[in-house]
Write a structure and sequence with these properties.
Helix content is 45%, strand content 14%. By secondary structure, the chain is of the alpha/beta class. It folds into two domains: 3-189 and 342-358, Glycogen Phosphorylase B (Rossmann fold, 3-Layer(aba) Sandwich); 192-340, Rossmann fold. A six-stranded parallel sheet has the order 3-2-1-4-5-6, sandwiched between helices.
């Protein structure tokens, strides 16, 4: 890259927001800053206290609501609109609730990226069919309403968005159901400087297992609890805890103190918490649906201990019977995250896409 082109890239101003689910906005912005790109994160209030450059905190008192929500926040958004040149949005959200701002980015010569993270692109009908969800499942009850809302939003985004990104290979199939072609995956990102590898705790009297959940139905929490209770009844020495409604820092502390981490056993891929667990060096259980392997080139390296609702008990019992394998899985897990999910890797992928698709 010649110096003139490098200088032009360094002069780019990139907005990331306005949600920070899984810390993806703040992590990718940080990764870009590490490469001398002026990238900043502006995000709405976050109960998990994730890092961000500016937070639109929800105010409660009447004076604060008026001062911040009616005066300060609109001015900050207006400043951001005119200051930044590229807008990297997440989860189907933009600077305004109704997304009436979408046509104006192109009018003012801005570039827009939409980065899908989960329910913003999820197609309930596809999941119901693929995983044979029961009639009482929330997705079955809400399928038509959810899919119609997402479809309308995506078709509007298709008119104004310059680049579509997915964070999981599952999203590619979801997008197809809405008539959208998403060809670029930016794997979920982690800052490994903040996630130190910890050797497996020595097993003394019991194996400590934790399951982190933000949605019990989605993660399959009830079945996980039942199956582990059954193993304990069989005589296995398990100290099991479900972790929910805690800060991100507290979650990391809990992961560091466990022997095995359980993500989800329901819907086909590992999430951000599973990645953090692997980065710390904890063997991690999740359901990884092999039908999505065609969208990635590192499927054979994935160290996740694959388990479904049908075989979760059998898989966990196998680990309990051979705990010596946990150390090997621990090392493989850290190496995998370093190679495929570190922000140094993912932000380079993102910058290459910016240059190729938006800035060339």
């Amino acid at each position: 890259m010649n110096e003139t082109k490098a200088r032009k890239i360094r002069n780019k101003r990139v907005f990331h927001g306005i949600v920070n689910y899984g810390s993806q906005a703040s992590l990718l912005a940080q990764g870009l800053r590490n490469m001398s790109i002026n990238a900043k994160t502006y995000t709405i209030g976050d109960q998990y206290q994730r890092n961000t450059d500016f937070e639109f905190k929800k105010r409660h008192s009447l004076p604060s609501k008026f001062f911040y929500h009616a005066l300060v926040y609109p001015m900050v958004k207006l400043y951001a609109f005119f200051y930044f040149q590229t807008f990297h949005f997440y989860f189907g959200r933009t600077l305004t609730k109704k997304k009436w701002d979408l046509p104006f980015y192109r009018f003012f010569g801005k570039k827009v990226v939409m980065h899908y993270l989960g329910d913003d692109i999820r197609n309930y009908k596809l999941l119901i069919t693929r995983y044979k969800l029961p009639n009482d499942h929330l997705y079955v009850k809400n399928e038509k309403k959810h899919d119609q809302i997402v479809s309308r939003r995506i078709h509007r985004e298709m008119k104004y968005v310059d680049l579509f990104l997915a964070s999981l290979p599952t999203h590619i199939d979801f997008a197809k159901e809405y008539g959208l072609s998403v060809n670029n995956i930016i794997p979920l990102s982690l800052n490994l400087e903040n996630l130190i590898f910890k050797e497996q705790p020595r097993i003394v009297n019991e194996i400590r297992i934790i399951h982190g959940t933000t949605n019990r139905k989605w993660k399959g929490t009830s079945l996980i609890e039942e199956e582990i209770a059954s193993l304990i009844e069989k005589g296995y020495a398990i100290n099991f805890k479900v972790i929910e409604n805690i800060t991100h820092d507290r979650l990391i502390q809990e992961i560091e103190n466990c022997h095995i981490y359980i993500d989800q056993i329901s819907f086909g891929w590992y999430g951000a918490a599973a990645l953090e667990s692997m980065a710390i060096g904890r063997p991690t259980i999740a359901f990884v649906d092999e039908c999505y392997f065609k969208y990635i080139d590192y499927e054979k390296k994935i160290p996740v201990i694959n388990a479904t609702k049908l075989n979760f008990k059998e898989v966990l019992e196998g680990l309990m019977n051979k705990p010596e394998q946990l150390n090997h899985i621990s090392l493989k897990s850290r190496k995998f995250v370093e190679e495929h999910h570190d922000i140094q890797v993912t932000s380079k992928l993102l910058l290459d896409l910016y240059q190729d698709k938006l800035w060339s």
